[in-house]
TrEMBL record:
Protein's recorded name: Photosynthesis system II assembly factor Ycf48/Hcf136-like domain-containing protein
Lineage: Bacteria, Pseudomonadati, Pseudomonadota, Gammaproteobacteria, Pseudomonadales
A GO biological process held by the record: photosynthesis
CC per GO annotation: photosystem II
Residues in Photosynthesis system II assembly factor Ycf48/Hcf136-like domain copies: 115-274
Amino acid sequence: MTSFLLRWLARLSPWMFIASLAYAAMFIQLKADDSALDQPLLEKRDRFFGAAANNNALWFVGGDGVLLETGDGGQNWARQKLPGAVNLQSTAVSPAGVRVVVGNQGKVFVGTVNSQSWKSYVLPLPDYANKLNQVQFFDGAFWVVGEVGSVYRLSADGMTWKDYSLGDDFTINDIARAENGALWLAGEYGNLFRSADNGNNWSRISLSEETLRSIQFHAGEAVVVGNGGQVYVSEDGGANWYRQPPFTAEHLFDVTRHGDRWVAVGDQGQVFAAPTATGEWTQTEPGGMSKSFFMSAVSVDSGIALAGKRPGLVDNNNRWVTWPEGE
């Protein structure tokens, strides 16, 4: 009798299990844990290479297509991921609110300040060297530079382009417009390139053998920074260049103007400032600031916004604010 009952139970057990699942589906309501689905604003692998600002709105772009943004000066933040998940190197915004983001694989993304949708296209770079390093907006157009001497002028809406490339295999890291109207490029192997006819023809100026990363003009002065802590300055709008006495051996990745001073940023979390291009450059070290790297510095009303391993702000009282706060 016992063996008979066990055989019947063995036959019934699969049907009992199925019945229990059906009961659960009908009468038991499962609740999703929404908190487990929230996307963190920052992840450990994040690296931010470029930044741009427009009034109280700021954008940081970086690895794997990540874009971090705030519309209220850092109080609230949102994170999005641009299509394709390529490394994003730089971003710029026009006074009309058009945003352009550039990065690896020749990718260009175009959007607007108040929209989360993007259009994209690819500039014609070779497969072996297709990184776009920098985008700047001036004189009613976006200018994009990158590997293999690439220089492109984009329309004000970011959607059409014209090629002004060098025709030489030099990586270009930055572009600026001097006050006399000349275009300047900062590139590898210590080379500057100048155009007096809006990019149609370029002349080369060799300053060193080390890569130059960033160039900026202000009130007749000019500053170029690069690898190995090199800083070159001009007091006559680029007609003559002089090497500043070294004040760091670390790479310097960006230079900008904030208020009444020049600011240069680079590796190991270093930030330097000087009242004039030929003045004394002193290090800024507010407590709690990241000691990793800063790739981009943007002047905003509240201070200097910095893109790096962690984005943040050196405020006008020389205090460090990590963005987003609490992350």
